Fold this sequence. Notes:
Oligomer: single chain
CATH architecture of the largest domain: 2-Layer Sandwich
Strand order of the largest sheet: 2-3-4-5-1-6
Amino acid sequence: MDSRIKIEKTSEFEEWYNSLRTKEKMQVDKRLAKIAFHSHFGDVKGLGDGLAELRWKNGWRIYFCRPSQSTVLVLLGVIKMDKKKTSKKRGFCFDEMPIVALKPTVKTTEHHPEEIFRDVKKVGAALLECLLENDVKAFLEILDGFLLINRMKVAKKAKLARSTVQQALSGKGNPTLKTLAKIVHESMS
């Protein structure tokens, strides 16, 4: 049984997504990949009537609903300029989210968040952009997203244990610059 959550998108979401820089697309797709492959939503706020929002500390919001048992439909992405403190994270359970019937006029297409991480040149350009902007958080987030999709291949090429690669970017890891450089080098070659 496939436990993967299918991600679908509206044309409004796609328009917003396409307006983002590559680095930002990768940050969004890392979050959507975690949902698709691990059912991990992160910071989510239920808005009622089957609508919820994925939240980022930088003000990004993605509004979504659940049109079927194993599908998330991303409706719209916005940048919320008001960054006032939001309420504490409440427990969120996708299984408890009501299934919303879509109108027949709503057209959706499938979104594959892992695809952007298969393009090594885009990943390399985004990582370089992060370094030039001194955006360490985005650098680690994009590298982690890349490894989420390509972890086994990178570990094998870098001749590192898969657990070393996994732990390097976890909150508990404290990788040396040598380990990070080896991971990035093997990822981009």
